[in-house]
Amino acid sequence: MLGRLKxxxxxxxxxxxxxxxxxxAGWYLTQRLAEEELPTxxxxxxxxxxxxxxxxxxxxxxxxxxxxxxxxxxxSAGQVLAHMxxxxxxxxxxxxxxxxxxxxxxxxxxxxxxxxxxxxxxAALAVVAQxxxxxxxxxxxxxRSQHLVERNTVPxxxxxxxxxxxxxxxxxLDAARAGAAAAAAGISTARAGIVxxxxxxxxxxxxxxxxxxxxxxxxLRSPRDGRVQYLVAxxxxxxxxxxxxxNLIDLRDVYMTVFLPTVEAGRLAIGSGARIVLDTAPGVVxxxxxxxxxxxxxxxxxxxxxxxxxxxxxxxxxxxxxxxxLERHADYxxxxxxxxxxxxxxxxxxxxxxxxxxxxx
Length: 361
Prior knowledge:
Shape: rod-shaped
Distance between the termini: 64 Å
Mean pLDDT: 82
Helix content: 40-55%
CATH superfamily of the largest domain: Efflux pump adaptor protein, beta barrel domain
Largest sheet: 6 strands, antiparallel, barrel
Order of helices and strands: HHEEEEHHEEEEHEEHEHE
Radius of gyration: 46 Å
CATH class of the largest domain: Mainly Beta
Number of strands: 12
Strand order of the largest sheet: 1-8-11-10-9-12
């Protein structure tokens, strides 16, 4: 055992590790002692800067044609970030347009058929009117012949011939009426052809709108102002429907999440004033406000039975930076940076001098 200790103490790496640990412990104690004692009514919590992340995804599966945005680039709402390949959609669009043209031609033909059927119906009605006149003339002639045969002025054969003409005229009238009915039915059929052709036109127009919408969706646009955080896929890759292509963060929704104990969280209100100080810029104070307070404890013991346990519960609090401030300092927004958030649990409390100087505006 003594030999091991001698070898350990004679190893220079042991003394180097021991010195490093001593320096780290000294730095930690120095930082702890250097922390300013906060006045009553103000609480603090450690956290990291976060921002709302948005996935830019393909609506339908396909191959990525190109990506126009780069990691770290600031983009605006509506800006095209990437394109999906649309060769198949372009072919479907041409086919739908051809169907639309065919449907329009069919509608024109059907409309012409209606005009023709209406003309034929008018002609059939004219024939009916003519046959009615012929029947009336034949019946009048028959009546005269019957009166004359009673006086032995004309022979019986004349009456028989006139009666035959009446029957022929009546049959011709029935045939003309049947033709008129058939012509009317032809109008209904022709009009049904127009309805069918118009339905085909509407179906083709709907197909064009659907395909055009898919082509428009193939241009992946930014839903809001933000910054591209990282690319998930590369040009040429095939992604499924809903597959992510890139990710961006909303530069107008930046916040820090901290955890406060029950006593402090219970006195906090939504909209309370706050301050954020990042480790990378200890001399800059970022104004903020409390935007969220969890109603459920995050660190809950298995059973809560004592006052000490209840007071040990921690509640999640979100401190949000004002959007108008972020717009002026968007280039400095870096999610993931650690820091400290200070919140007012008493509205009447005054910020200490360290949180009033260096205020970001």
